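ok so I'm stuck.
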Amino acid sequence: MTQIVCISYIPWRNNPSRSQQLLSHIPDAEVLFFQPSSSYKSGPAVPGRQVLPNITVYTLSASLYLAEARPRAYRKALDFIQRCMDSHGFEEPLLWACTPMVANLMEDLTCRGLVYDCDRIWQELPVNWESNLAYRADLILAASPGLEERLSLCNDNIACIPAGVDFPLFSMVGQTQLPIPADLKPITMRGPIFGYLGPIDARLNLKPVLAAAQTRPDWQFVFIGKYHPRNPLLREAKALPNLHLLGDRPPAVLPDYLNRFDVCFDLIHATDPEDDVIPSRIYAYLLSGKPMVVMHLRYATPLFPDVVHNAETSAEFLQRCGKALREQNHWARGRRKKYGASAAWANRYRDTCDLLDLNGLI
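replied:
not stuck anymore, here's the structure
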């Protein structure tokens, strides 16, 4: 059985992260999954939690993940990780690194191989952390072509494994009679629904939606996901009667909401202009076949330009929303579904396992 130690920057959650998805489907593997604590205050060690028959989750201090973390924090983390490994009989596991912070631990962890699973740009951490980790990695899995090109300067054994979509769940959209969510039903009676699946974090740029909602009060803009109180435009968004923040919902009911969207949309963050990582919700939108309007950065490559309405400005966003709402292109709908189906997590698992096997890591 393959033994894997994963150090993640995202806690284990019901709506799985990319690394969580990939690790859960490596055959004949036992995984120790180390996640950051929800608090920066150090406290008593939390016992391991078995989330799957072959996966146990442990918690590390959140301060360990900061650029200013002290050497003492790394020593404590190494001792804790080693004790967990000993208790599970781990001798020389595969180290699965999801954050450049692992560069400060890898020298003292006895491992038979190192995978760097990179799904974002790390602007807030010292650049030498990531370069050292990438240089030492036996295999790099990059979530986008941009990340692949960026990291190829340090290591040429690299492959692009983008995010995926839960095909069995979202393929139900348009194929099955799904119920209308109670909180969405009265909104559907007020006008066409433009929908977004995902969190509104502090950096999400809401300006295009605010402008469109003010210009077209007959259109209803619906957000399904948690919203961060520090988003500077959140108060203005809550004041608009046709902009609806419905909050987080369990993954199992997301197809019920998506099924009632007339048009799906995506926004951009105040982030690095080189960021070209496609979030999982885009593939869910594609799999539904529904028209989609996507904001993209001025110098970024438009997403699926043959079947997606891309916009760079708020004015273009409004215009593309109208065009998407009028869309009658059944050819585009079918092609969107094919793009979504090709991104099924099952395909991502297979590609990842093939790469691990090819490199002798499983």
